[in-house]
Structures are given as C-alpha cells and as structure tokens.
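Summary for the steering committee. One of the milestones for this cycle was to obtain a three-dimensional model of the protein with zinc ion bound, which we needed before selecting residues for the alanine scan. The sequence and ligand used are listed below.
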Amino acid sequence: MKYLAILATASLAAAPALAADKDWKFGDGQMPERWSTVNSDYAICDAGLMQSPVDLGQAKARGEITVSTNYGETGGTLAVSDQKLQVDFPAGMHMHSGDKHFNLIQVHFHTPSEHAINGKRYPLVAHFVHATDKGELGVLGVMFEEGDANPALGAIGNALSSGNGSALNLDASEMIPDDLSVYRYMGSLTTPPCSEGVNWHVAEEVMEASAEQIAAMAGSLGPTARSLQPLGNRLLVAPVE
Ligand SMILES: [Zn+2]
C-alpha cells in the first residue's frame, strides 16, 4: 500500500498540467474575493491601494484624454478555459494614450462588466490588453448592452463552438466605439496576481451585442466580475461632456 501511495504521489508531482491549474475563483462580484488567503503571491490583491475595478461614477475631475487605436481586420486564436474567454492577436495593432504607445496583445471578456458606473454594471465587457515595449500595461475596456448583434462578437461566438485553440478572423475595430471618450485612472489587473501600474481606460460609450451573443459569452464564462475596489486617493478622470 505504501509503495502504491508513493507512486501516486510521484505521478501527480510529475504531471505538468497541475502547474497550469489556476488556484483562484471569481466570487459573486459583491463580496471581497480575498485571493491573498488562497496564495500569498496574491497579497497585493487585498493589501494594494490601487486595485481595479472601481465605480467610475466617483470621478471628480473631467478631462480630455487623447486615445486612438489602429485596430482593424486581423487573425486571432481563441483561448478558453475555466472563467476565461480570450482572443490572442498577432503583433501589429496598438493603442496610443497620451504619449504612450501600447501594443495590443489580447482581448478577453467578463460577464457582467467589472467597472460600474454609479453602481450599474453592464452585462458584458471586453478588455483589450496592451503593453508598451517596456512592459507597462494599458487596458481599454468597452461595455456592451443588449441590442443589435455585433459582427466581431459573432466571429468569436462561432470560434467558441469550435473550441479552445481555434483560429478566427475578425475586425477588432467593430468592438470599440467610433468616439473613444474614456474614463482614465491607474489601477491593477482584476485577476491574480492583481499587479498594479495598469493604465486603465474605459470607453464612455456603451456598445451593443445581441441577447444571444451575451448569453453565449455568459454561458461560457459564468460570473466573472471582481468586486469593486476602493478608489482611495487616486485621480479618476471622466471624459469632458
Ligand atoms: Zn479583464
């Protein structure tokens, strides 16, 4: 019996898949997730003072943030796993914000939206994740409400039925508003390890997706919004009216 137990332990330790298993979960989006209690590597998730998401209705300043993208037609690869639905992009698309040049890496989704506006969360959000050449992160969030079908989300929905790793083509510009007026603040990744120093941008204009598209994403993801984090002393700039 002892010999068998050792064998079992050895084979578990050797299984490389275990290393990739995630050890944290989204909660209900209301109660604090307390991810630091799961893994001490996630200490900043609970101790950090610059965490995301926040309620954007707390903005006390307005300002013109100059943001532009060159998003367009592109290939992509779908990455789906537990509480994750993402499209990885090849190099070439970017976002300019102020004097910073961010390269687009991937877009992923949450249901419902993570950021709220005066307590209201939208049923779906797209997070476009970018990094500068030096590794500084910049995210553009775009919220969706129920309405007309979105063609790019349609392409992702089709890929979803083909499963993880499937290739797709879409026009990424179809997932962002023509008018990129944004809320802007410094925050964090909304998933462990909750690293801070993320340049957050959230589009003021809410886009439309069909009820079926939202249901397909919510069905794949489940509840995937982190609880709202305190804004504290941070500057949160709302777009000029
Ligand atoms: Zn996200």
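Key point for the committee: The chain has one domain: 27-238.
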